[in-house]
Write a structure and sequence with these properties.
Strand order of the largest sheet: 2-1-5-4-3
CATH superfamily of the largest domain: Histidine kinase-like ATPase, C-terminal domain
Oligomer: single chain
Shape: extended
Number of domains: 3
Distance between the termini: 72 Å
Number of helices: 13
CATH topology of the largest domain: Heat Shock Protein 90
Length: 507
């Protein structure tokens, strides 16, 4: 073989180390070169050397002619050829031989062989990834439906809370229901976050809060024989980093679940986040995430390989061996690094270090939600979920708005045209059965209807993009109607402040 790999490593040596069974054969099947994996696969030592002999003789007698024809077909064409057949040394097993011409050379063909019943690692991982993609789509749809239900629950809670005296004992129960609904909303947010395919979104995040959020999910996945220890909820010291919260949570969950797998007989997992001095920059700090367990530790012969792609000691339990390799890439992308401390019988601790960030700006109390009463403005509400539409419309009317309801985009477009002079604002669900909400906005704009629009959605995939320049605000589900009414009030107040602004017309 000609050529060399980086750092002067001969390409021949690299290919010989590849675990795939590979050989180069001539058009008549004569083997010119093979790697060690091919010799082992064909059990060559028992049948003599491969090089210089026809590869067909390693196949069952009834398959040898088929292999010859396949080699000749590959040598004479541009497309790869695949054939399922049987080896002479393993008559009960089927193998797949893949053949392709080498660099348009009509006399040389590259051959790769693998078990037909045992997919190659890359094939298996591809299939696994495809399954995960399907699960992601299903999970996104389920989370969307749950967000609609939680939005309705928030609405009914607000009605109940306003309907009884603030000092009534039932108010305590209603607060408990609201806290449970908010927890459910957090679960659906996490589900949507893990299924998204959008580019990473860096923001100022509290690493300690991410640890606590992850712990809430982990408690559902960890058996009661394992104690999960986290920072106290009352610990107000935040640990700030600039990061994609979804990816960092993926790191936390992956490390914690690996720790769980090491505790077959129970034990303790400890999660936390803290600031430590930066040894490379005196006077500076780094933010450190740590995940430790009281398991048996990582054996010395395994430790150097734990970050290798596809390496796993748990292949019989469905693990892909990609977890630590993926989180190492995530950590590096955040300018961080990961350290492992372990000993046989002493447990394992992973410490992940990130550049520390300045604290996020404190929330402005003046910016908190305040429910403002309306002045009889007309709103067009477009929502296909009848329960959500009913509760939102009822609440908005209680705030003093006149509400026109539509359950589909084509109905909303007709109603918007019929009420062009009176509709002051459109509230529209993004996921409508007959037309996406953002497409409805484009249709309204093309018809000259320039009123502000609130797009409501439970999806985190949607990016409003240019729509934001077209007087469109995005409101994520689930939300309370008080929050929606406050948003409506602020938008209408801002529209009133724009000279020449009027319902149904361009400003």
């Amino acid at each position: 073989m000609d050529g060399s790999a980086p750092h002067d490593v001969p390409l021949d040596a690299v290919i010989r180390a590849v675990p795939e069974a590979m050989a180069m054969v001539r058009a008549d099947g004569t083997v010119e070169w093979s790697n060690a994996s091919m010799a082992a696969f064909l059990e060559s030592p028992a049948r003599g050397p491969l090089v210089g002999r026809a590869i067909q003789q390693w196949f069952a007698s009834y398959d040898s002619p088929r292999v010859s024809r396949a080699i000749q077909e590959a040598a004479g064409g541009e497309s790869p050829v695949a054939l399922t057949c049987t080896l002479a040394a393993r008559p009960t097993d089927q193998v797949v031989i893949r053949l392709r011409r080498v660099n348009s050379d009509p006399v040389r063909v590259m051959a790769l062989i693998c078990d037909a019943q045992k997919p190659r690692p890359v094939q298996a991982e591809l299939r696994h990834a495809q399954k995960l993609e399907v699960v992601g789509h299903l999970a996104g749809g389920i989370a969307h439906d749950f967000n609609n239900l939680i939005t309705a629950i928030f609405g009914y809670l607000e009605i109940a809370s306003r309907s009884i005296d603030p000092a009534h004992s039932a108010q305590h129960a209603l607060r408990g229901v609201r806290e449970a609904a908010e927890q459910a909303a957090g679960v659906t947010r996490t589900l949507l976050t893990f299924t998204r395919k959008s580019a990473p979104e860096r923001a100022r995040v509290n690493l300690k809060e991410l640890v606590l959020q992850s712990a809430r999910l982990l408690r559902r996945a960890i058996p009661t024989s394992i104690q999960l220890i986290t920072p106290p909820e009352s610990d107000g010291e935040a640990v700030w980093i600039d990061a994609d919260a979804n990816q960092i949570q993926q790191v936390i969950l992956n490390l914690a679940l690996n720790a769980k797998d090491s505790l077959d007989r129970g034990g303790t997992i400890r999660l936390g986040a803290e600031y430590t001095a930066d040894p490379a920059t005196p006077g500076q700090s780094r933010a450190v995430l740590f995940v430790s367990d009281t398991g048996g530790g990582i054996p010395p012969d395994v430790l150097p390989r734990i970050f290798d792609p596809f390496f796993t000691t748990k292949s019989d339990s469905g693990h892909s061996g990609l977890g630590l390799a993926i989180i190492q890439d995530i950590i590096r992308a955040h300018n961080g690094f990961i350290e492992v401390r372990t000993g046989i019988g002493e447990g394992t601790t992973f410490r992940v270090s990130f550049p520390a960030a300045q604290p996020a700006p404190a929330a402005n109390p003046a910016a908190e939600e305040t429910s403002s009463q309306a002045h009889g403005e007309t709103l067009l509400l477009v929502e296909d979920d009848e329960q959500v539409r009913r509760i939102v419309a009822s609440q908005l009317r209680q705030f003093g708005y006149s509400v026109i309801e539509a359950g589909a985009a084509h109905v909303a477009a007709l109603l918007a045209e019929q009420n062009r002079g009176s509709v002051s604002l459109v509230i529209c669900d993004l996921e409508l059965p007959d037309m996406p909400g953002d497409k409805l906005v484009e249709r309204l704009r093309s018809a000259g209807i320039e009123v502000p629009v609130i797009l409501i959605t439970g999806s985190i995939h949607f990016d409003p993009g240019q729509l934001e320049k077209s007087r469109v605000i995005l409101l994520r589900k689930p939300f309370g109607v008080v929050r929606l009414a406050d948003t409506v009030s602020k938008i209408l107040s801002a529209a009133d402040a724009v000279p020449g602004s009027a319902p149904g017309s361009s400003s």
